Amino acid sequence: xxxxxxxxxxxxxxxxxxxxxxxxxxxxxxxxxxxxxxxxxxxxxxxxxxxxxxxxxxxxxxxxxxxxxxxxxxxxxxxxxxxxxxxxxxxxxxxxxxxxxxxxxxxxxxxxxxxxxxxxxxxxxxxxxxxxxxxxxxxxxxxxxxxxxxxxxxxxxxxxxxxxxxxxxxxxxxxxxxxxxxxxxxxxxxxxxxxxxxxxxxxxxxxxxxxxxxxxxxxxxxxxxxxxxxxxxxxxxxxxxxxxxxxxxxxxxxxxxxxxxxxxxxxxxxxxxxxxxxxxxxxxxxxxxxxxxxxxxxxxxxxxxxxxxxxxxxxxxxxxxxxxxxxxxxxxxxxxxxxxxxxxxxxxxxxx
Length: 352
What we know:
Largest sheet: 10 strands, mixed
Mean pLDDT: 91
Number of helices: 14
Oligomer: single chain
């Protein structure tokens, strides 16, 4: 699948006319609306959708929020395009905002950004119930998926080509597109680790030539072995059922949601479970965020309440965990709740 598949969730019916909000644009987009809008990560999408449902359930007069699954990277572009009714209030993100993205935000007048960690997720590798029962490592995945492992064009066609202990079944991986935060996390948490473990010079290369390191370690092959499945993670589950030898890559919540249809693949001997991701034993653990424009908190009805609902539901026994979220440690939950209560803006100096 090519391009960005946008999933639009409109609560309680068709999107009505946008009206009646005080536009806190500070020179930003024209027009007005009284409806929360969010873009971004397909991994965070179901959690923000659940909170939006609660918001409307608690206030029947509230307009239905519109949540779009665009992928983290594409969502950042939309979020950072400006302040005002024409631009999203929230960015769902399966990785932290980059310094370069914040610079784009600031250039377009989006300077007061609130960063809230809402939980933890894991990059899950999965196979069909009747799959080959793979046991992989970051090095295996790097050698299978990198465009130029060890500086040479990747010619591996079956898993045994990358590791003689693996079965001689074709390498076929369905995963997220380049605009996805899950793809960024795959590169950072899995491919880079595998690259640096298999090539001792790679770690030094990261400091001396970042672009060369990226080409060596995280550029994914484009010869059909890795298939960009778009932002629809449910489509990957369907692909695994029709191709039992394939591997799928998506957020842990989709593995949990589809546990009757697919199995998690262990990485370095650790299976992707709530417990292993929560305690960072699983190699693909990562934080999940939402980013909010402070200028929109007063302008957009219900936005403050939505953030409060997030904080009230992200605990270890809360409904978001039942939906597939992994709760952050108590200290991070407390910090995030304080950020919401105090409307503390992000210090861009902490970004990289």
